[in-house]
Amino acid sequence: MNDPLQTILGLNAKASMFPPNSRYHGIDTASMEICDGREIIYLRRRFVPEPERFVLIQEHTVVQGDRPDILAAKYLGDPEQFWRLCDANRVIDPNDMTDVIGRRLRITLPEGMTGVNYV
Predict the structure, then answer these.
(1) Three-state secondary-structure class, residue 62
(2) Which domains does the chain have, with CATH numbers?
(3) Residue 104, strand partner residues
(4) Could you read off the pLDDT of 76-117 as tens digits, one per residue?
(5) Which run of H or E residues covers position 107?
(6) Who has the most CB within 10 Å: 10, 37, 69, 107?
(7) Apex CA 86: angle with CA 41 and CA 62, to 5°?
(8) Coil, strand or helix: which one is 65?
């Protein structure tokens, strides 16, 4: 009989723990043994890319009633992608993006995408 913990550790954490639209998709796990001998499994640190590395596709001026999830749905097609807007605008708390009416938000392509080349 297989040990359940070993089975979990043997799974591909990148593919199975978080869906592709999660900010944690592709982040490795690590483990450490604590003083009582138990093993703690945790996510390794996620390094947020510099916003200048993203290709700007447009800007949005915050208006009353804007929320990160609504903006992500409008511009990215998925309300759960609000974290991409956070990354593009150097924001840790998603609600900080829409706190100030008139703030200009960067709407960008995901990191590594360079846009469409027209021939």
Answers:
(1) coil
(2) 4-43 (no CATH), 51-108 (3.10.350)
(3) 61
(4) 999 999 999 999 999 999 999 999 999 999 999 877 677 665
(5) strand 104-108
(6) 107
(7) 155
(8) coil
